Give the backbone structure.
Amino acid sequence: MTSTSRPLGLSASACLLLGACQAQVAAPGAQPPGAIELHPVTIHASDMCGKEQPSVHPIPDQASLTRIITGGRMLGADQPPAPTVDFASSMVMLLSMGQQPSAGYQIGVTAATVRLDTRVLTVSSLWKQPEPGGMQATMITQPCVIFSLPRGDYRALQIVDQQRQERMLVDLAPAAR
């Protein structure tokens, strides 16, 4: 081996080793080992059905779901009734962004996984804020999304935003079982 081919050989080996290390790092948004993917179903989204503070709450039954959805409607508004949900097989949650000072704020759910070892249910969400300097109606809003997932033996619910930052962690011991 000549002295010029040795550095080339070491460089190639280093690149292969680095590539192997990078291949083992999970891609952003990838499922952690021991997790299964669930598919949240958005039932309702609105800018006026949330709570004053960012929060997530279980909705226990059809009557409560109907009350939450129809309670935020304006008088005289012609909108379809609340959808019917099978509460025996689905857990229904209300995720609220909290009170906001103007229109243009939105929240939604995009994916969910449950880790089998810890039974933590992680729901990925999108927290949208208006563009700085943009024109928005000045009005108090409480953006929310109501979504369902298969009922299960979950210990906790973790809400993460589009940057994978934890927004909330809630004990689900009594709610999901």
About this structure: Strands lie at 35-38, 41-46, 55-59, 90-96, 106-115, 120-128, 144-150, 156-160, 166-171.
